Amino acid sequence: MTDGLSHEHRVQPEPRVQIEYCTQCRWLPRAAWLAQELLTTFESELTELSLKPGTGGVFVVRVGDEVVWDRREHGFPEPTAVKRLVRDRVAPGRSLGHSDTSA
Known about the structure:
- By secondary structure, the protein is of the alpha+beta class.
- The chain is 38% helix and 23% strand.
- It is built from 5 helices and 4 strands, in the order αβαβββααα.
- Helix 2 links the parallel strand 1 (16-22) and strand 2.
């Protein structure tokens, strides 16, 4: 009946972030900059951050399987907005300092 994983691993999935960006639009620099911001902010919380090349104007940020930002719905994100969304999923209750003050 056991799957070999401890109870903690089943309850707390490893925080992985994926930024999918459009190669046709040349959005790699924007995706890499956002990745750097997230890795700097969540250096001890994230286990992985990947950049996924895509096409057709895609710019999507996912935490695990959940889409937290989609450019088609919300436009390009400010880093502070994405940091708050990621924080709410990987480190709830953690203060982001000045990033929490701008709404």
